[in-house]
Amino acid sequence: MKSFADPACRTEVLDRLRTVRADSPRRWGRMTAHQMICHCADACRMACAEVTPVEISGPVQRTLIKWIALYAPMRWPAGRIDTVVEMDQLGDRFSGAAPRDFAADVAALESLLSRVAEQAGRGRWPRHPIFGRLSEREWLRWAYLHMDHHLRQFGA
To answer: Per residue in 70-119, pLDDT tens?
Structure first.
């Protein structure tokens, strides 16, 4: 299973990230490529406990949905999947990091992705707003899957 615990998987994600352009067309969803970069940066901040989103989960999300999302042998589905308000880049719910300079925002995301990987072995991880308590292994799997999902969204 691909995970940010594997340096080769991290390199793959960074290589794919570097192919995304500000004008890359989306294949699904409503975010622009620049908004996706900022959304992913906000998600990394959450994994590093810099942003603490409100939990929106219940028992089904913390068990069945979590298992399917992290371990089922399928890609996350294309289409709109609601996110927590702290990472939402769209509409009146927007409260995530605002897109500013594309190149600088990509560089910030690259740095944050490295920080997520470097956090391994250093202690306790925060709760995920949908999946609840995640182990380090689960957080690193989630980090890969989340990036893969959004990179595929923009053809990377």
So the answer is: 999 888 888 766 776 677 777 666 667 889 999 999 999 999 999 999 99
**Residue 128 backbone phi and psi in degrees, to 5:** -85, 140
Asked, for residue 1, whether it belongs to a domain, the answer is no
Q: pTM of the entire structure? A: 0.91
| CA separation for the pair 131, 66 (Å, rounded) | 5
pLDDT per residue over 51-65, tens digit each? 888 788 788 788 888
Give every CB contact of residue 83 below 8 A, 6+ residues apart in sequence: 39
Q: Tell me how far CA of residue 76 lies from CA of 23, 70, 114, 124, 135, in angstroms.
A: 23, 9, 23, 26, 20
The single-letter code of the amino acid at 154 is: F
Question: Which sign, positive or negative, has the C-alpha torsion 63, 56, 116, 43?
Answer: positive
Range of the domain at 35: 7-153
**Secondary-structure breakdown of the chain: helix, strand, coil percentages, each rounded to the nearest 5:** 50, 5, 45
Give the total number of structural domains in the chain: 1
Backbone angles phi, psi at 133, to 5 degrees: -65, 125
